[in-house]
Specification:
By secondary structure, the chain is mostly helical. It is 63% helix and 10% strand.
């Protein structure tokens, strides 16, 4: 039960990071490098949210390794990242038009 709650909470956190990273493009004051992939003439995909989500995933794995609980950290974080990626892409996080 605790693992299921951890997966749900981590999925929500990863979704929030994915959304926030995808919306940073709209802020002109954000002086972060922009990574995007051109899909067609006017549509593109912003990779910032995926990069931030991957950095958070690696941070969770490092934290699990530091606590000597790498097996449970890998399992819960990987399931949460995959769920957040599927849900985020289904909700079209990161897709934008010019």
């Amino acid at each position: 039960m605790k693992r299921a709650i951890a997966i749900i909470l981590e999925t929500i956190l990863f979704l929030f990071v994915f959304l926030a990273g995808s919306l940073l493009v709209a802020l002109p004051a954000a002086h972060l490098p922009q990574w995007d992939v051109n899909l067609s003439g006017t549509r593109y995909f912003v990779l910032d949210g995926l990069v931030f989500m991957f950095v958070l995933y690696v941070l969770f794995l490092l934290l699990g390794a530091a606590r000597h609980r790498l097996r449970s950290a890998v399992l819960t974080s990987t399931v949460a990242v995959v769920l957040a990626l599927v849900l985020g892409l289904a909700m079209k996080f990161g897709f934008a038009t010019h």
